[in-house]
Design goal:
259 residues; alpha/beta; Rossmann fold; 2 domains; 5-stranded parallel sheet; 9 helices
Length: 259
């Protein structure tokens, strides 16, 4: 990894690493540090936001927060919010903003976010972005949130999404175009038959791309006007993308200090 990324990682990991096991129903508000990292990862379906969120989690020593994972955790643990969300999702409806806000607000109050966080999958609309900024302002720290968008060509995204196959047992992920299993249709770890998610079809991908473009464009412009936005090429090896993100973070932080 380039030296800029190494230095950025050493700086933050040494200051901000926490050991904390979160409990969904029990949260505690804590004072945030004056030079924290608040990172929003934007990008089209299949661009690799989840992968990069985990890479940044290790590099920076701050938690990656996926709203999808939060919802699934609430549902799995049968919390009061989870029971409401389960009914909504079971009907095939979108989880309404007020419920998402409550779930995200609780997570941002947990101790491990004191040094910052990486949000993956939220905000998805300008209204959600405005809510997030207002919510963070109540935490008593003016450190700016920066937004990074991973970019990739349409055809490559289509191959990534429609070629994706999952192991239902060990959760390993393959791609029949770029990372096929050694035995066609079978997981290399446990031999289980691989499956394709119901939303990894061409027609659903096209619908998701249209929705993504319409909803995300205002968020991009919002953070671009604030001088807190950068595009990162997502069509490269994982470690090179991570290094590119680290450079973008360093540049945006430097710019924000001059505003």
């Amino acid at each position: 990894m380039p030296e800029t990324a190494r230095q950025l990682g050493r700086l933050v990991v040494s200051e901000n690493r926490h050991s904390y096991t979160s409990k969904i129903e029990t949260t505690q508000t804590v004072a945030v540090k004056p030079d924290l990292f608040r990172i929003l990862l934007l990008g089209a379906p299949g661009v690799g936001k989840g992968t990069q969120a985990k890479e940044l989690e290790c590099l920076l020593g701050i938690p990656s927060i996926s709203t999808g994972n939060l919802l699934r955790a609430h549902v799995g643990q049968r919390t009061s919010l989870g029971r409401v969300a389960e009914g909504i999702m079971g009907r095939g409806e979108l989880v309404p903003d007020p419920l998402l806000y409550q779930i995200v607000a609780e997570r941002l109050q947990e101790r491990d976010t004191a040094g910052g966080f990486i949000l993956d999958g939220f905000p998805r609309t300008l209204n959600q972005a405005v809510w997030l900024e207002d919510r963070l302002a109540t935490l008593g720290n003016e450190s700016p949130t920066i937004a990074l968008r991973l970019r990739m060509g349409y055809k490559q995204l289509l191959r990534r999404v429609t070629g994706r196959r999952n192991c239902p047992v060990c959760q390993s992920i393959y791609n029949i175009f770029v990372n096929p299993p050694k035995r066609d249709g079978l997981c290399e770890k446990d031999g289980s038959a691989l499956v394709q998610r119901t939303d990894d079809t061409v027609s659903i991908f096209e619908n998701r791309m249209r929705a993504y473009s319409e909803l995300t464009a205002p968020i991009v412009e919002h953070y671009r006007r604030l001088g807190r936005f950068a595009d990162v090429d997502g069509d490269r090896p994982i470690e090179v993308i991570t290094a590119g993100i680290a450079v973008a973070i360093a540049n945006l932080r430097q710019c924000s200090r001059r505003l």
